[in-house]
Amino acid sequence: MRLRTLVLFCAFPVVAAIHISSPATIAPVVNVDGTRFTLDERPAFLLFVSYFDAMRRGDAAPDGLDADFAFFRGKVDGVRVFANWLAYGCPPKPATDTLFDLSGVDERRWPSLLRVLDKASEYGLLVDVTFDRDSVHRAGGMSRAAYVRALADVTRRLTGRYPNVYFDLQNEWDNRGAHAMTDAELREAAAAVHRDDPHRLITASGAFVKDAGLDFAAVHDPRDAHWFEEAHYRDALVAGVATLFQEPKSFSAFCPGQDKDDMPGHHATAAVNARRAGAAGWTFHTRTAFRMDNAYKGGASRYVDLASAAEKAELARLRR
Known about the structure:
By secondary structure, this protein is α/β, with parallel strands linked by helices. Helix content is about 30%, strand content about 15%. It has one domain: Glycosidases (TIM Barrel). It is built from 9 helices and 11 strands. Strand 6, helix 4 and strand 7 form a beta-alpha-beta unit.
């Protein structure tokens, strides 16, 4: 794994009307060095939180992201967002307002992604931008070729900007029931991104494919009864590769019957044990941010509105 060097990006000036907190002025720089992440060139064990519906939350109001990002800052290093996210409900459905349409980037949705990246940069947060072909709901579905072209287009538009951003090229790429890509398609997508921006960190969540051009592994580990124990993470670690545990058991459920673990201390313990096992990073996975559009809950759909007191307390334990 070669060390990538990224250029600092200065975020847009802070608007004076925002009084929630004072955002940072320079985006952090995420990188990979061997089996570890680095943050501003220093080795770091990175913590993320699932914030999947970020683009719709940002659409809700000019300051739609501020309260959440102010809350996250200091508790985690970054957020995981989906550029193409489901219209989440019970059951969830593919959406018509994703970043991608059948032919490529939907220009109407491009400002929404930039809004998330700019605001995260202001607050000093990293962004895991996860792409998903399945969530693009158009007649006939999005072809592999169009999907790869769209990934390359996004890459070109962001080249030289946002050193706090990496790409997950396809959520659970090897899930044959839903998100299936072949090894060859994954390699093609990785090559297309690095052809346009050799410095952008990339992964593909699921089984790690060696020599595919991926910079680190993004593991979705089994959600069994031992999910928070050190041995669980040690067994799931990808040897010799920086490993991010990107989607462990969720703290919360959105629909009846979904698996969750809201036992106080389990997630904080899991983060500690992942680090002890040699992981490069870990995500506080929650379904609380699966729907945050302005029509949900009468507009009271920020993470800070939706999360329970117990969930907020668990998130705050991660740094202790």
